[in-house]
Design brief:
Elements: E1 3-8, H1 13-22, E2 31-38, E3 41-48, H2 51-60, E4 67-73, E5 88-90, E6 93-101, H3 104-113, H4 124-134, H5 141-149, E7 154-162, E8 169-173, E9 179-182, E10 187-190, E11 202-205, E12 210-214, E13 219-223, E14 228-229, E15 234-235, H6 240-244, H7 251-257, H8 259-267, H9 287-290, E16 295-300, H10 302-319, E17 323-327, H11 328-331, E18 342-348, H12 354-365, E19 369-374, H13 380-384, E20 387-390, H14 403-422, H15 428-448, H16 452-462, E21 467-472, H17 477-491, E22 494-499, E23 516-520, H18 527-538, E24 543-548, H19 553-558, E25 561-564, H20 573-592
Parallel strand pairs: 16-17, 16-18, 18-19, 19-20, 21-22, 21-23, 23-24, 24-25
Antiparallel strand pairs: 1-4, 1-10, 2-3, 2-4, 5-6, 6-7, 7-8, 8-12, 9-10, 9-11, 11-15, 12-13, 13-14
Helix pairs in contact: 1-2, 3-4, 4-5, 8-14, 8-15, 10-14, 10-17, 14-15, 15-20, 16-20, 17-20
The chain binds fructose -6-phosphate.
Fructose -6-phosphate (F6R) binds next to helix 10.
Length: 609
């Protein structure tokens, strides 16, 4: 997620801005920039890479002035480059932005038709031009910004300044956060509290659909219609480290909670209920080849591999195509039999995993069509594949994957619908029903988050166990695997995931009253079979932690602990069932005192074999 800062006061703005951006580094970024206004107007400095590059540039080309804006960019539209870095200038206007503008292509076409030249690949630059356009004829910065943001679709927070209105910053937001810091003879703006905590603890939180006009001595809040809003500032008492984690104890906990928003961002603009389509314009260049494929192989590592196992169900059921799944580390060395009618889908959060990149090379060598599902823009895997669907989970800081997983599921589901429609194997009305369920998923995951304290109680009771068994069937068997992996990684407890029906062929020997058995038991087609498996565990004294979407007397009687998640279409149940499993792994790890965000021996991105 991009970092946003703004300053107006009496200090050297570039020092304040770079310092504030440094405190947002934990969010992840690929380029940075600042703009400062002085007697010569607004001057901009931007750089690819780490903040240290920007600091070096500011030594050779310093910026003087007591008002400015700064930004660290996490690329979403357009690769990381100096031209795509923020701030963006258009005429007299300079602007920074966090979020995604859905209608930027229409707006870009309109601005180009008016003779404007846009020099970056970003959606952001469009907003700067819109504001500049609106300022024509002497309209004030705040009015022009208001007119411009009313034309934007999507989620955004922006901060704007203009050569023609020195001493004033204007901020506006619809979704991504903006906090305003109130100081003595100075005021500050940031996307996140820690950036400005050094200067003030008195903060105003901009709400969706609000704007702020910020000068050295005042902050005026209005809505997008221009009505004044009044609110008292809040005193923030967090220490700087807690502040970085958004008030959560760990990044992992924060990222679990970010899933509803990450899913909204991943689904945005990609669901069309009226026509039953999942428009993924990024696939248009490979559309002809997609129409000819007759087999799919999915490949990935770790958590992303679990996502591909769920994806196989989506593709089988919605596109009616044979699909197989392989670990990338195996696929790349097994001389897979592939041809030009094969599609190889690789899934990777980082886009840099060496084995997954190796799988792409193998698929390309064999002449297969390659598609990446990736979170990091312009990463090696994204660049190497014929097409890429980006998840918009934002940076994942904690080593163990959480929000990357659920957004990968969302991207795979969208793709399965898109392919099913393309191959005429899914009709519009069926697709529309499924997409309507998918659209509700962010809200249902939000509801599932309320299980956190209940899961914490369960975790306390089982934290001393030496082994865990996770069981699931069908589309939730991979969810069981993912639950077991999370527990292993975070708490170092041995855990195994198994298909519930397979338990009696071996793992049943492990069951004693010391073994917690975590079971996915949604009320789906195989529910009664799952209950039979649970009875096998019960009769051997196993401790059952069951997760369902519809409680029954029977389940309540068998389970030691029962967790109920919101109900959705059975194919989509992995989204909701995953949440309590993430919490369970997290809370057990906390109980055992593990290093939750950086578990031993693990790296966030495995770029070696
Ligand atoms: C698990 C985890 C790893 C990664 C795996 C693939 O929590 O984080 O198993 O999922 O290393 O990484 P990416 O998705 O970056 O290719």
């Amino acid at each position: 997620m991009c970092g946003i800062v703004g300053y107006v006061g009496y200090r050297e703005a570039s020092d304040v801005l770079v310092g504030a951006l440094r405190r947002l580094e934990y969010r992840g970024y690929d380029s940075a920039g600042v703009a400062v206004l002085n007697g010569r107007g607004i001057e901009v400095r931007r750089c690819v890479g780490k903040l240290v590059n920007l600091e070096k540039l500011l030594i050779t080309e310093p910026l003087r002035g007591a008002i400015g804006i700064g930004h660290t960019r996490w690329a979403t539209h357009g690769r990381p480059s100096e031209e795509n870095a923020h701030p963006h200038r258009a005429g007299n206007v300079v602007l920074i932005h966090n979020g995604i503008i859905e209608n930027y292509l229409e707006l870009k076409a309109e601005l180009t038709a008016k003779g404007r030249t846009l020099s970056s690949e970003t959606d952001t630059e469009v907003i700067a031009h819109l504001v500049d356009e609106e300022m024509k004829g002497g309209v004030s910065l705040v009015h022009a910004t208001r007119n411009a943001v009313r034309r934007l679709l999507g989620s955004f927070s922006i901060v704007v300044m203009s050569d023609t209105e020195p001493g004033r910053l204007v901020a506006a937001k619809t979704a991504t956060p903006i906090v305003l810091g109130l100081g003595e003879r100075e005021n500050l703006i940031a996307s996140d509290i820690p950036a400005i905590l050094e200067y003030t603890r008195d903060m105003l939180f901009l709400e969706d659909g609000e704007m702020a006009e910020v000068t050295r001595d005042a902050i005026v809040l209005t809505d997008f219609e221009g009505n004044v809003r009044q609110r008292a500032p809040k005193r923030v008492t967090w220490d700087p480290v807690t502040a970085q984690k958004g008030g959560y104890k760990h990044f992992l906990q924060k990222e679990i909670h970010e899933q509803p928003q990450a899913l909204i961002d991943t689904l945005r603009g990609r669901i069309r209920l009226e026509t039953g389509d999942a428009p993924l314009a990024e696939l248009d260049p490979i559309d002809d080849r997609l129409g000819k494929i007759d087999r799919i192989t999915l490949s990935a590592c770790g958590t992303a591999w679990h996502a591909t196992l769920v994806g196989k169900f989506f593709l089988n059921q919605l596109a009616r195509l044979p699909a197989e799944v392989d670990y990338a580390s195996e696929f790349r060395y097994r001389a897979p039999v592939l041809g030009e009618r094969d599609l190889v889908i690789v899934v990777s959060q980082s886009g840099e995993t060496a084995d997954t990149l190796g799988a792409v090379e193998e698929a390309k060598r064999a002449g297969a069509l390659t598609l990446a599902i990736c979170n990091v823009l312009d990463s090696s895997i994204a660049r190497r594949c014929d097409a890429v669907i980006y998840t918009h989970a934002g940076p994942e800081i904690s080593v163990a994957s959480t929000k990357a997983f659920t957004t990968q599921l969302a991207a795979l589901f969208l793709f399965a619908v898109r392919l099913g429609r393309r191959l005429d194997r899914l009709d519009a009305s069926q697709a529309s029903v499924l997409l309507a369920h998918l659209r509700n998923i962010p809200q249902l995951t939000e509801q599932a988050l309320s299980l956190e304290s209940r899961v914490a109680q369960i975790a306390r009771r089982h934290a001393n166990a030496q082994d865990f068994l996770y069981l699931g069937r069908g589309v939730n068997y991979p969810v069981a695997l993912e639950g077991a992996l999370k527990l292993k990684e975070l708490s170092y407890i041995h855990a195994e995931g198994y298909p519930a029906g397979e338990m009696k062929h071996g793992p049943i020997a492990l069951i004693t009253d010391q073994l917690p058995v975590v079971v996915m038991a949604p009320k789906d087609d195989v529910y009664s079979k799952t209950i039979s498996n649970l009875k096998e565990v019960e009769s051997r004294g196993g401790r059952i932690i069951a997760i369902t979407d519809e409680p029954s007397d029977e389940l309540e009687r068998i389970a030691t602990d029962l967790l109920v998640v919101p109900k959705t279409h059975s194919l989509l149940s992995p989204f909701t069932l995953t949440i309590p499993l993430q919490f369970l792994a997290y809370q057990v790890a906390v109980e055992r005192g593990s290093d939750v965000d950086q578990p031993r021996n693990l790296a966030k991105s495995v770029t070696v074999e």
